[in-house]
Description:
The complex is a heterodimer of chains A (607) and B (607).
Chain A: H1 3-8, H2 10-19, H3 22-26, H4 29-37, E1 42-47, H5 54-63, E2 80-84, E3 91-96, E4 101-104, H6 108-115, E5 127-134, E6 143-147, H7 156-167, E7 171-177, H8 184-197, E8 199-205, H9 215-232, E9 244-246, H10 248-257, H11 260-266, H12 268-313, H13 316-379, H14 385-423, H15 432-438, H16 444-452, H17 470-477, H18 483-504, H19 518-578, H20 581-604
Parallel strand pairs in A: 1-6, 1-7, 2-5, 7-8, 8-9
Antiparallel strand pairs in A: 2-6, 3-4, 3-5
Chain B: H1 3-18, H2 25-37, E1 41-47, H3 53-61, E2 78-82, E3 89-94, E4 99-101, H4 104-112, E5 118-125, E6 135-139, H5 143-146, H6 150-157, E7 163-169, H7 176-192, E8 197-204, H8 213-226, E9 231-236, H9 252-262, H10 265-299, H11 304-358, H12 364-419, H13 423-441, H14 445-451, H15 459-471, H16 482-517, H17 521-579, H18 584-605
Parallel strand pairs in B: 1-6, 1-7, 2-5, 7-8, 8-9
Antiparallel strand pairs in B: 2-6, 3-4, 3-5
Amino acid sequence: MKLRDFFNNKEYRSLLEKYTHLDDNNGDWFAKSLDDLQAKECVLPVLGVQGSGKSSFLNSLLFGDIVLPVDAAETTCIPTVVKYGTNKEPKACVVFKNGEQKPIACTEDGLGEYAHQDKNPGNKLGISHIEIQWNNDLLSNGITLVDLPGVGSITAENQRTTLEFLKKSTGAIFMLRTTPTITKSEATFIRGALPLMGRVFWVQNQWTDDAPNDLQESKDYNYGILKQIAKELRQPEDIIAEPDVVCVKRALDGRILGKNDMVEKSGIHQLRDKLVHFNGTWQDSIKQGKLCQAKEFVASALNAAQEKLQLLSGDVDEEMRKIRKLKSEAEENLEFNRKQSRQALDYLDEREAQLKTIVHQQCQLFTENLRNDVREVIDNGVVGGQQLNQAFQDHLDNRANELSQAVQPEFLQTMEELGRNLGEMKDCRFNAKKINEQANFSDKTKIHDHYGRLGAVGGTIAGGFGGTWAAAKIGALLGSSAGPVGTAVGAIAGALIGGLVLLWGGNKAKKIHVDLQKESAKKELFAFIKEVQEKAEKAYKDCLERFKSDVDAAIKQWLRNQENQIDEDYRAAKKDLEKPVEEKEKEKHMVSQDIEVLAALSNTLEA
Amino acid sequence: MQIEKVKKVLEDSWDLLEKSTDDKMVPAMRLLHAHLENPRSYIAFIGETSSGKSTLINALLKRKFLPAGPRPTTGTVTWIEHGVATEEKLYAVNRHASIEEISKEQFRALAEKPDEKLLRLKAELPLSRDKFKGLTIFDTPGFDSIIEQHEEVMKEFLPESDIILFTVAYRIGFGMDDQQMMSLIADMDVKFGQRPVFLVVNRVPEGVTEKDSRIQEIRLHAEDTLHRPVQLAIVYSSAPDPNGDATLPDADSLWEAVAKIAFSEERRQELAEKTNAMLASLLEQRQLEINSVLQAIRAGMAGIPELEHQIAEFRKTEQESYGLIEQYAAIWAKQVPARLEEACEKLKEKIREEITKGNKWADCNSCHNYVYGHLIPFGCKQICHEIEEYLYQQFEELDEKLSEMASTTIARLNDRVQTIQSPDVQKLMTDLGMKIGYKLAGTAGTSIMKSFGGVGGSAAGLGNLVKMLVKNVGGIFKKTFSREVYTQIGKIFTKKLLSALTVALDVVIEAIDYIRESLTWQEDLKKQVDDVMQKWLSQVKEEFSGTMLNDYKKNNIDNVRECYAGMIQDVEDEIKVAKEQHSQSEITELNYQLEHIRFFAAQLQEK
């Protein structure tokens, strides 16, 4: 039986619903799974700091010419989406926020007209994105590459765009540099975004002036930091693929000049091969992940059916004792879960207060340091409006970075601790023990492989879920213990990036008056700094509160579901047991049939 | 908790503690006793030259004891003990620890112009006013006269000080030197704990209150730098007498506020707690010592082969650790200069661009200020942070590997312990492992030990400790290895690099006029920036390769050496004991001592 047919089959669906509590925890799992299976698009945003060579990389990978504008400062303020189309030559159009589209020339100049900061300052043209389509083989199977604004010194809008694309992405390409190696602020970004990124291709760009001898060292260093981050996030180290070194400039020049040896040496082929392979297999990976889930559900149903048959056939008193015992075991588990949840929530309460203090202190520190920066600059004689503005902006960015670097680990730590607390919770289903004993196919690593690394597909795992924590989501899908963990970590991951949004946003607008007196310039800037501090503090605290109430609600809902489940399981079993003999016989017959169907299904179900 | 109680326990346990084999024990006991015997409050006076420090002390004494005047009058640290002597006694404390009594004339002359051998001056003064009895004051020279060594001064006196008086002259305000000095105090906060800081605004015109905007900015600037509130004290100017001589200001309210804190119950409580904790750790240490001696006696000659094997193990690991450090140092030697060069080149490029762009909006003067007042200092600071970050990552990595080596050695010890037949020898080796683990874990050791069964606890204790060490590799050893090294040198690194910048910039100041007059100022400025950056780079590179690199290496090597020497020493001590003959009465005596120490430790814990 093909997976797709299985998801489409109403009979199977009702069969599974009959024996499991499929939709109590999981919403419309069948429909969602079908959507996932049929996903046509696999979004891979290209991320990296400004100047890491994102646009150049895409030019060399796809176009073999300078099509995406690459000129230095803040080139890409508008995302460019490159996807498959039937046309032989690339065709471009701008998509406005109101949905209108306008074809444009697919050339550096044509795109630059809209993408360039100078031509379209602050996106006053109201563009949503630029779309390029053509029948490039790399894109043939639904891979969609997105050239995004740089990570780091970017505006709030850019940051929001990045976050949006990350949420609907299946993976990402992350551009690293050879020199400098991963900086603190890059690491901060990666830490926040990794949970949302799914399968990441790390590309270390080697500029032509990077000494070849430093390459290996630099790569080892970058790789080490990435693994360190994975470790901090309690992810297996091998979730980080080894970075590929690509000399983007050489690849591009080689393609423009038609010199194959240059392209060959650039390392772009190896990466391209990987992407081509990914293009061919991403759907399969999703299938495998779905297959694991489906098999687990079928097994769960089969098990429940067998239990039921036993119940109907066995001695009434004996069976009654058994289900009472099961009930009390399940209740014990539930009690344990309640205790564990209380602990988790108490911890969160305690941490909330601590985190608020930390946030307050760090925001205060931010202000104090920034005021001293301003004093220094002004005392050094920088008083002209424009220069003072620029100097202030530099310091503001720097201190904002420091702030998020100080706050982030605290949030991460909370997340980890919470995950630990919740991760110990127990399965309350009546047949839980048996399922877990029999569940040899629910090989965790397999699920992780197929699902975890792939991440969300087409935005179907919504609400902050995704990426490497999809495994936790699967836990929830299976009605097993990891339930609320997924929600918790998903929400906080969003918060971490959210925190950055706020700081990098809203500040750029500040322009102090030109040619103020020293003291009034200070005064004006100090007032502004205070404002930023208050905003930052509020945003962090809002974030925290939202997170807390989400977690709280998720845990409570989950516990309620478990309670109902025990109740239902018990009542259903009791009802079966108390049925008159004839009815039991009839039912036995039906269940036996169901068992046959399920057993056959479990043997034949395939991707 | 009372100081008297701590003192009594110390005196009672003196004879027992004195028998320690650790040569640091007795000095520690003496120091502790001195603190308990004479609980004084030390007040450090800090401030710019001519901010009126000496005058304020004279105001306390109600006589012009210290030379004070408009030119710098205090050239050395003066230690004033008020109310300890019946008549005035003056001393010169020399560098080679000799103390000589000196005349009043000599005292005044040395105060203004110290000779080479003088370390500091000391004055024991009879009581002038009852309410200020027991205040011990350090008067320090203004920073400009000691700007090079002020860090030394701070290091020497701040840890010993209970209260800090930071003086600022109202008319001069809180300048960049004050900021630098105050930030040193903030650094000390982290290391030695916070102590009250009085911000004394001196020579305030009559009628000005703390609402005055100037005073408010002084306070804000001070607090921004200290990152916590200061206690503001205003001292008004005093009119000269009819002869035209300066008179002493009325600073009584300041001194009363100081005395109130110095003699407060909280202060005594704090002291009692501090000394209690110190004594408790001394008792615990001695307890460990006796325990291991008893263990060694019990195991006797049978334990020697095991112990010798352990020494060989430690020596081997120690050597491997050195090798690893060498490997890392070789990488730093290459990477850091290369990174510096690269970053400098990029910064130069950026500044050149700014200068060219500057033509549009800036005249020579403001462009010059912008370059030297912001672009260069900010850029260089960023470079320093980048390198610091690189080194930090490297240290972490090295630390982790060193820790892994150490904990693997202890894990091997644990494995071996399981195979030992003789219960006495097994216990000996188990306790040895615990003791070493305890030392490695540093201050956190006590609680860790307790949670794993403590000294003399079960063999499972060691196993658990090993498990924890392995799990937290790089966590628990951090105190011992690079982390500590790093925090110490991280700041020094940036500071040294930035002070090299000041030197490089000094050259520029001299050349300003030339540039201003020139018609081709932009090109000249670019050239000058190139020169400055070049000069900075070469100095910094030299500093790094010549001094810092060796420091880093040495620090790491020293730490490893100290760590292993400690472990080896422990084992050797046990071998020595095991080889000796021990009479029954000796053993009885040791047990008796142990019991007493436990008794004293329990006494300390009583409320």
